[in-house]
Write the structure tokens for this entry.
Amino acid sequence: MSVYTQGVVALMGVNILMALSVYAIVMADQVSLGNAGFMAIGAYTSAYLSVKFGIPIFPSLIIGALAASFIGILIGIPILRLEGLYFVMGTFGFGEVVRSFFMNFEPTGGAYGFRGPVGATLPMIYGWVLAFMVFFWLLERSRLGRSLDALRDDAEVASSIGLNVTLLKLGVFWLGSFTAGIAGGLYAHYMFYIESGNFHILVSAMAILCVILGGMYTFWGALLGGVIFSILPEVLRFMGGWRLSVYGSVLVLMMIFRPSGIISRHMVRNAGEWVGGIFRKASS
Amino acid sequence: MLEIAHISKHFGGLKALEEITFHVKEKQIYGLIGPNGAGKTTLFNLITGFLPATHGSIQFLGNELTGLKAHKIAKLGIARTFQNIRLFSTMTVKENVLVAQNIRARSGVTSLVRLFSAKEKRFEEEADDLLKRMGLWEKRKEQSLSLAYGEQRRLEIARALALEPRLLLLDEPAAGMNEAETEDLLDRISEIRNMGKTVFLIEHDMNVVMGICDYISVLNFGELIAQGTPDEIQASEAVIEAYLGREEE
């Protein structure tokens, strides 16, 4: 694999994780436009720990993600009271606050950025992707996952069957910010250099687009969206500046013809039964 | 079992409920009737914690319910249905029932790795049982919204029963049903009482409740105008007036 291809594939892993971080919060029927903020906290925290204190990559990634999810809980408590567009605006504001914080925060380089974290490899990035996929797969099949489906369908009815809606929302917000924190840490340790501009609002927006395109009702959608939006720019490179208008057109068409994304829960269920059938045949 | 004392609910200047006092006894089928807009659903919303009361108290088995969140009240053993059916639309029929077992089952993060336990199998069987009882078992794999109207109402009741509640609140369970469907539903409600549950139902059609309720309260413009057995209610001047209007002399 050429260095260039390697870079594309590595970023694809980070994009998938970011899409999953958005999907986590979408499970509670909320769209977060601030996940680049959590990514930044994860990236800067883990990079700082690695470079200044020589902490190995694995623990520093975890600490970075815990820091991101801790902040996530702190802002989640007030912000999860907001709904719909207000929640989007609230998280957008948060993302921008974090970005300008790191732009001005001298200990992590301020506007010059922060240099030095190393050690993320392709297998490591995809190990994390796999771990999160397994987690989301188990979640989707569990009783907890079904509680989240209930919350998404009708929060009021969910509370009438005894589900603690506030706790569920806070839980997925924690999960989303933790996932974004891991994505940020991996990004920093792969790129060797981060600056506040890496965690621009567009990063959050792209992660949302992945979920919208791939499918909003299953984590497989986030995976597919992450892959598509990582490869598409390379495929469309010959178009130069026109690439972005292709993105736009794809989205408009999606919204018209398949508003809940490419992969639906129904497809996953059918595929699951199909695979199950093959195994049963093979074993009989 | 359920004691409602001096409950009032005001929306700004509108007095939706005023000084309501009555109690529901264990294993009763209790009916609350009244014309549309009398405040029946508002009272249900106060009991289940969907709305805060302006003042007054609601006690269930000795627990004060006012001020509690909806999910806490459900855990105390009160389940409800809704006037405008509200099923979980992305789920199948059986999933609608399974999800309502979550407060009794292991449904936290640990549920991720405990899919095939014996306990889980028991819950599955229990859900199948409930669906059979409500006549929905053959349709358990269908999407909930693909059911016919009467079936959706029955599924809502099955979902509420999956909580294993002590008290079941039914908000106009027969609304929009034809006579045969209503008959069938009333049989099932009697059966639920025979399971040892207390049923508290709202209805605006008097004829529906007369046959099955042990005791009835009548609400009109936010105030209780009569309480008694079905016979007493049918004879009550105030009730006839509320439903039919006063005859001009």
Notes: The domain at 3-283 of chain A is CATH 1.10.3470 (ABC transporter involved in vitamin B12 uptake, BtuC). The mean pLDDT of chain A is 91. Chain A is about 75% helix and 0% strand. The CA atoms of residues 13 and 130 of chain A lie 10 Å apart.
